[in-house]
Design goal:
Length: 351
């Protein structure tokens, strides 16, 4: 319930928070959640008394700030807590004028395990998760920290638990990033284990760790290098190809043609982090041009706005994107001397 009236310093709006929502949960510890709203709408003065919030300032900003509070209340009514990052994402979604309600995005459960619930945290993540439900093959392309692999593994575990598939296959290309596998110590299994470790880590977050070795022994869960997929037909399986930017076009075709009946495939990667040898094209970079428009194949793109690690990670991703764009920018007309867009040349004009 709210009322609006004119005031010398602008419009004034009063919101009465339902008694079922604790004010400390809405405002945050030390009012940290309220501060996020105030910093996002500096033209609005906010006064809190009891369970009443009075906002004074620009009518448009007040209306949007009230919508933020409404979404925060809706989230809290589901029993889920709020963080400053969740409030920032709510504001970003409202400013994007999307049709989806932020509260619906932030409270949609994917998987629960050991008292922990996995959910999408941004609108693009929610669209990614929904695309996995609707399509047989989904490509998720975006920078580090956007939840590409984590959410795919969560959907795989969910599908296994719901008996929609009978097994999960997780695979990555074992690209030699600075070290040759043949020179690393240990058995073949020990040599490739570091490449597959992120997939094991995600599984341990989502399943009882004690059951994972048994499921792997039975073949219900398989974690293997991409080379192990050749010659197979994967029926009734949820198959995830991670770090797909490090596949060649031939490897990408080989993987996609492993698809069998009753299966789903999710392909994840970051085209800005390619570790392939110079001159080798990335299968992930060319596949969209090949499969664009093919029925039941969907491409999701995540950005720095979808980074769910430390907020600084998103800024780092943006900074590198600006740097890369500057590297390929052509020099101004008539400019002399080296430019960021030029290739650096050694003695004698050699590149």
């Amino acid at each position: 319930m709210a009322e609006t009236q004119g005031a010398p310093q602008g419009a004034q709006h009063r919101i009465v928070v339902p008694s079922s929502v604790p004010m400390v949960s809405l405002l945050g510890s030390g009012d940290e959640l309220l501060r996020v709203v105030e910093q996002s709408y500096p033209e609005v003065d906010v006064l809190v008394r009891g369970n009443e919030i009075t906002m004074t300032g620009d009518p448009g900003d007040i209306a949007e700030a009230e919508r933020v509070l409404d979404e925060m209340v809706a989230v809290l009514r589901t029993g889920q807590g709020l963080s400053p990052e969740a409030v920032e994402r709510t504001i970003a979604m409202l400013r994007a004028r999307t049709s989806e309600r932020p509260a619906d995005v932030l409270t949609a459960n994917i998987l629960s395990n050991r008292g922990r619930t996995i959910r999408a945290k941004t609108l693009n993540q929610k669209r990614y998760v929904d695309a996995i439900d609707k399509h047989t093959i989904v490509f998720s392309i975006g920078p580090a920290g956007t939840g590409k692999t984590y959410l795919a593994v969560a959907k795989a575990v969910q599908a296994l638990q719901a008996k929609q598939v009978t097994r999960i296959l997780l695979t990555r290309p074992a690209v030699e990033a600075g070290e040759r596998l043949g020179f690393l110590p240990g058995t073949l299994s020990e040599k490739i284990d570091p490449y597959l470790r992120p997939l094991y880590d995600a599984l341990h977050d989502m399943m009882d760790p004690a059951t994972i070795p048994r499921l792997m022994t039975e073949g219900t869960i398989e974690v293997a290098p991409l080379a192990y997929m050749r010659g197979r037909t994967l029926n009734d399986a949820f198959v995830i190809l991670d770090e797909a930017q490090n596949t060649s076009p031939e490897q990408m075709k080989m993987f996609l043609t492993r698809l069998g009946f009753g299966s789903k495939m999710v392909v994840t990667g970051d085209v800005t982090q390619i570790d392939l040898p110079t001159g080798t094209h990335s299968g992930l970079k060319v596949v969209e041009g090949i499969l664009d428009g093919v029925d039941d194949v969907h491409f999701c793109r995540l950005s720095s706005h979808d980074v769910v690690r430390h907020r600084l990670v998103g800024r780092i991703v943006d900074a590198y994107s600006r740097f890369d764009a500057e590297q390929i920018r052509p020099p101004p007309a008539g400019a002399r001397g080296p430019h960021l867009g030029d290739r650096r040349r050694g003695p004698g004009g050699r590149s």
